[in-house]
Amino acid sequence: MTQPLLELRGVNKSFGAVHVLHDVDFAVYPGQVTALVGDNGAGKSTLVKIIAGIYGRDSGDYVFDGQDVTVHGPRDVAALGVEVVYQDLALCDNLDIVENMFLGREETRGIGLDEVTMEARARETLASLSVRTVKSVRQGVASLSGGQRQTVAIAKAVLWNSKIVLLDEPTAALGVAQTRQVLDLVRRLADRGLGVVLISHNMTDVFEVADRITALYLGRVAADVPAKDLTHSQVVELITAGRSGDLGITNVATATI
């Protein structure tokens, strides 16, 4: 296997007396989709926010492209090439697609905005992802379907030469056709060489696009295994009980937050 783009090694995180993450190791590889799965309260959101630079670590290493890095906040993570698409998408309904994709990072020419360049780059990015469901990059986001909104949010994340994209429940509340569009886009991101992290409760989606599955149980990594070596029932057991056959946490009884 190639060297990971991103590694978290031995990460611990507590909030007061509550120990949320216990010696977590997590890796993201180029050209692969890594599914991060776990029940509510397993620590997925905390781990994602540590990767995103929103939370600091109590201990452990943050390694990017083989080098230890110091992360002070989200700007440091974005500079590395890590983008996060949260479940609420963080899109502004009163703006169009171009304005949303460049929000906070607008291109300028003199004292004004360089609308021509931004529009061209938005079109190029959507085309590079083989997005054909958006009629115009000047279409208002408020008029888009759920699948189209998710597509715009993902395109916004990869616009900035990203190396890693984290997707938080990207198919939640989407219909069948829209889910198909988003999953195809997730796979295309990995095929372009990006490292993709898919956070999802939907095991059907996970097994369709994931190359690796990392299962969290009460803040511990229960398994980090190629998807082809796991079954649906094994993943469910890892999520709900921390163990499945020979896989999982050795002493589940001690695995408490």
From TrEMBL:
One Pfam match: ABC_tran
Organism the protein comes from: Nocardioides abyssi
Residue intervals of the ABC transporter domain: 6-243
MF term (GO), any: ATP binding
Annotated PROSITE patterns: ABC_TRANSPORTER_2
Keywords: ATP-binding, Nucleotide-binding
CDD domains assigned to the protein according to its UniProt record, in alphabetical order: ABC_Carb_Monos_I (cd03216)
InterPro entries assigned: AAA+_ATPase (IPR003593), ABC_carbohydrate_import_ATPase (IPR050107), ABC_transporter-like_ATP-bd (IPR003439), P-loop_NTPase (IPR027417)
Ranges annotated as spanning the membrane: none
Keyword Transferase applies: no
Database matches in SUPFAM superfamilies: P-loop containing nucleoside triphosphate hydrolases (SSF52540)
Annotated protein name in UniProt: ATP-binding cassette domain-containing protein
